[in-house]
Amino acid sequence: MRKVYLSNIPRQDALKKFSAAVEMPRRTEFGIVGNSTGRVTARPVFARLSMPGYHAAAMDGIAVQADKTFSASDQNPLILKPESDFRNINTGGAMPAGFDAVIKVEDIHLLEGGRVEILAPATPWQHVRAVGEDVVAGELVVPAGHRLRPPDLGVLLAAGITEIELLEKPRVTIIPSGSEVIDPGLDREKGTVPDFNSTVIASYLLEWGAEPVVHPIVPDDVRMIRGALTAALKNSDLVIINAGSSAGEKDFTYRVIEELGEVFLHGIATRPGKPTILGQVHGKPVIGLPGYPVSAYMSLEWFARPLICRYLGLPVPQREKLEATLGRRVVSEVGVEEFVRMTVGHVGGRYIANPLNRGAGVTMSLVRADGLLVIPANTLGFEQDEIVDIELYRPQSELRHNLLAAGSHDLIIDLLGTAIKERDPRISLSSAHLGSMGGISAVGRGQAHLAGVHLFDPETKDYNRPYINKLLPGQEVHLVNLAYRMQGWIVPKGNPDRVSAIKQLADLKLSFINRQRGAGTRILFDHLLREADLSPANIYGYEREEHTHLNIAAAVAAGTARVGLGILPAARAFDLDFVPLVEERYDLLLSNSFFNSPEAETLLEIIRDRNFKQQVEAMGGYSMRDAGKEQ
Amino acid sequence: MRKVYLSNIPRQDALKKFSAAVEMPRRTEFGIVGNSTGRVTARPVFARLSMPGYHAAAMDGIAVQADKTFSASDQNPLILKPESDFRNINTGGAMPAGFDAVIKVEDIHLLEGGRVEILAPATPWQHVRAVGEDVVAGELVVPAGHRLRPPDLGVLLAAGITEIELLEKPRVTIIPSGSEVIDPGLDREKGTVPDFNSTVIASYLLEWGAEPVVHPIVPDDVRMIRGALTAALKNSDLVIINAGSSAGEKDFTYRVIEELGEVFLHGIATRPGKPTILGQVHGKPVIGLPGYPVSAYMSLEWFARPLICRYLGLPVPQREKLEATLGRRVVSEVGVEEFVRMTVGHVGGRYIANPLNRGAGVTMSLVRADGLLVIPANTLGFEQDEIVDIELYRPQSELRHNLLAAGSHDLIIDLLGTAIKERDPRISLSSAHLGSMGGISAVGRGQAHLAGVHLFDPETKDYNRPYINKLLPGQEVHLVNLAYRMQGWIVPKGNPDRVSAIKQLADLKLSFINRQRGAGTRILFDHLLREADLSPANIYGYEREEHTHLNIAAAVAAGTARVGLGILPAARAFDLDFVPLVEERYDLLLSNSFFNSPEAETLLEIIRDRNFKQQVEAMGGYSMRDAGKEQ
Prior knowledge:
Two copies of one chain form a homodimer.
Chain A: H1 11-21, E1 28-32, E2 45-46, E3 56-57, E4 61-64, E5 78-80, E6 86-89, E7 101-104, E8 108-110, E9 116-118, E10 128-129, E11 140-142, H2 150-158, E12 163-167, E13 171-176, E14 181-182, E15 193-194, H3 197-207, E16 211-214, H4 222-234, E17 238-242, H5 253-260, E18 262-266, E19 270-271, E20 277-281, E21 284-289, H6 293-312, E22 321-326, E23 330-331, E24 337-347, E25 350-355, H7 364-368, E26 371-375, E27 381-382, E28 387-392, H8 396-399, E29 402-407, H9 411-423, E30 428-431, H10 435-444, E31 450-453, E32 456-457, E33 462-463, H11 465-471, E34 477-491, H12 502-507, E35 512-515, H13 520-531, E36 545-546, H14 549-558, E37 563-567, H15 568-573, E38 577-591, H16 592-595, H17 598-608, H18 610-617, E39 622-623
Helix pairs in contact in A: 1-6, 3-6, 4-5, 9-17
């Protein structure tokens, strides 16, 4: 009954096939020059008028007849009479008939009776802007297929052109489909999915020069999808259906395109982006985009953008590329081209790139990304410390000042990022959530500027230093306190299980949700276990991991876990109860070279700033009493 | 009476002084998320809802309880009953209560009675998207001062945010001033200047994130300028007056700003851009921009853009830089920082940059420019073949395919540029008008791909080859005919002086306008002179030079010359008469490496294309009988 993917075609082959088989005939329209930045000319434009349209003074001064001034010199000043010998003239003024040069106001002496004296001759046509100096009638002003920029408008207007034939923007209709899909502004009942993809797709299309139209949401109903597609085709150059492009029992996109026209392929050999459909109806391109947002946006860029660029006669823009050192190993499957979103920062003279969450559903990975790592289909990925090419989402000039924070994550790090940008817009901050242990080793390897760490050492009862000494022996680093924060049990409102000590988790077999290995909070939990003479086997759900405090709270709020260990603000975000357990020290580990940089100085200034401290403490569960003190 | 410049301050110092002294207080407003691409967030935004908001299936398949599947194996298939043991589920569907894993549709066998068989156990939470996998409630979604891109909108909507607090766009009023200035759509009487600067300035401001308002044109009248400025200040964060910023008798900008507020400086040490005024009124920044377009736009970028970026909390974008070899010497004055617009192409593995017309009034130089050469104030310029840094106006990836045409210019070269872009949008063509001789040597030095040449050799009666053999001895180059074209006298309508032979120019002392040294047309004229036993001294205006046929025609049309030598289309463009004199061969010289490139192949295909030939011949004065033939 259910179909599986028809194909697993390399992306470039898919595009070639698709481009060759579909057409988007160009239409043109006339537009007002003044409103045409970013638009593309339909044909070459030739100047109608010259600019300047007359011989004009290029300086303030006097217009003279050059051949009457040849005798003037220092020794032999020449006196000129108004009207017959010279005329006053300002920059831009028309040269009077019979006058062919301008002498600058600085070079003349005013005498009585309106006469002037000059000490040097004028050469013919000096300081005169000839007719057509800027634009000359008949010359090519802008070619066809030219995307207009502000100075182009100036030249067109100067050339006497106020209306211009432009390529009409290609019209693209986006059909959001899915019975579970609702308007993003509506209340979200369980099982509904807000349609944010249409907004993102429309924004991209607009940016690329198309005119997007979003169709109302269509439920999973063949007849209705067919109707929507048929209607959209009447007035579109390209139709995008999102989603239903997979092979599930409610995925009708394939069927409808095939019924009305032709499917060229279903499934490309990429991750994300695999369940893409490329087809045509009445010769017009139809794209079935995957439902997962990252897949959808990538596939859009691979297949819709080239069609739009071809229509507009523009090259498909290439992203700036940068060589960076991989902070972590990135593995991939052979046979699939994979696209990994990366953070990139400039640490100790090298660019360092780290992978973000690779899930096709994790839109945040696109928001956080500084660039993209493309892993070709024929490789298994890249090793840590390997040099790789990153396609940049932000200009390299910005990434030079991008701070990389690794290690444990805390909301304060996000606030620091916002505050530092406020002080110096050139500086930004990207976070890799590696856990405290991962953070220490990233700083140690010179692959992060700083790391949040909160590792309790039961032997010394000290935080962080014992771990750093062990992991980075002999290495000079700096440890600065950021905050003390309260760790505790995150439990449903009202604490129905009356959780207080860890023993209860075991006794009541409460469904627990754990943090990932290497996280300070996990190490704390293991310490509590040992103190209570318990083992992981006693905890139901010990193996179930999340990477952030907020995700722990989310699981408890969703009812799939009864308890988790985390911080107060996370519990508050989900209106859960919080049972305080232990106050822990949360420090920032800074590499020595970063510590001595102006960026670190700004960072520490912020941490020590009274307003910033107040802002953090107001969130609850934090004490900033030692914030900014070296530990 | 007239003032001279008050200052000659380095640009960076001027900006520092200006930025420190003026303020543009921020305002915020709420906007619909869907319309907010390109806008800047006023404060950090935290997720209101999680995405997904419930535990959702990540695959099409069945939802199961993982701990009930542990016994399943190849040897020991497990049979599951609907409802109690499993539920059908599609990607995105909510996990039913009590179920904690999904088995993919590919991994199940349907049996009779709705039962299914599995051959492997499910691990808890496999193929389940946890609540908050993408966005988790409470997390920072976008920081403050963040310019929103399409995926940001997606994440905001996913996080349940449909309205967002944005920085209001800074309001900038542009006051065009000058009694000679008219609306660009009006008929141009002599002495009037169309106001195209306001359109260009407004387009730049819009691009940079501001909201421009163009005030009606104000004549050179102190009272009216004062009134316009006062009114503009009420509703603007920044006011720009264009122009009247110089020191002429009608330049009132300085006076008005000083009267109402304060002028910080008048005159910066740059070329173009010198006559800039920076001041404040009621603490608000006021900029007096120069009237010359190139000066105005550069000054706008130096002084208005940083203020707008500061208001928006964004770094001032840096242009991509490229190291290029200078094709020609570029000299400059010490003490002045100079900005030269450049063409850039990739010839024989190197990027080659050539200066364009340096006039502050030549807007076309900005249209043609691929980048900018900045000559620091403390240098005298750069030598030919020196490696210089070019700030790029177009991405380097495009310039890799930018063909450099040097030599003599003909409209056909422009048409070729348009036609080649039509065939392959990645290829573009930039022209340097060096004259035939300059073109041969540029190709010879590996600094241009091709050059237009039309050099008559009186000894051999041949075209071009004799010159190439002399200038590039032993060098392998290719010569391909582009067209034959008619050269003749360009004279006023009706040919009032009855010009036919060159002798008449001398006899009647007709005011002549000549082409620049090295131009084929000049060499032809010199040949005609020698043939008639005349010398340059016999020709009135022999020293007055223009660089193009169209500019020759423009001078004749303006009445400042009675006759020039040029081609028919130039005469036609100005509705002048044309007296045919000689048909000349106009060839393209191609370097050997370029000749063997795919780009040259495309170029030659176009030249030999029947439609292209017809298009050229339709302009008049051209014969394409040998077009594309090697010479």
